[in-house]
Amino acid sequence: MQKRRKMTRKLKPLNCRPLTVATSWSAILLLTGCSRAPSFNILGSFFPSWILCGVIGILLAVVVRLYFVRIKLEAQLTPLILVYPCLAAFFTFTLWLLFFS
């Protein structure tokens, strides 16, 4: 009589790897939000740095608008309701990346 071998199916380590990597990365990304928020003291009140970056970004967008009007480029920009908020957001995010990340 022949002994029957149990047929066992071995899992390939590569099949489990994407799930492990995805779980690890999601945990790391969620834990990065637990760090201290960058803030600074202005006249005795602590403000988050993103507010300062937003205000400076809006002011830079106003300066760029005045420059565009002076060189007569604003007439060619359409739609203005999208151009200037996107420009302000660009300046805001760039300032944030340069100084606070």
What would your notes on this structure say?
The protein has 101 residues and is mainly alpha-helical. Helices cover 61% and strands 8% of the residues. The protein has three helices and two strands; from the N terminus they run H-E-E-H-H. The chain has helices at 13-31, 49-70, 80-100, and strands spanning 39-42, 45-48. The chain has a two-stranded antiparallel sheet with strand order 1-2.
Which secondary structure elements does this structure contain, and how are they paired or packed?
Blueprint (H helix, E strand, L loop, with lengths): L12 H19 L7 E4 L2 E4 H22 L9 H21 L1
Antiparallel strand pairs: 1-2
DSSP helix fraction:
55-70%
Proportion of residues in β-strands? 5-15%
Cα-to-Cα separation, first versus last residue: 71 Å
The largest sheet is:
2 strands, antiparallel
Q: Overall pLDDT, averaged?
A: 81
Number of helices: 3
Q: H/E element string?
A: HEEHH
What's the shape? Answer: elongated
- The radius of gyration over CA amounts to 27 Å
Based on secondary structure, the structural category is mainly alpha
Total count of strands:
2
Residue ranges: pLDDT <50 for 5 or more in a row? none
The strand order across the widest sheet is 1-2
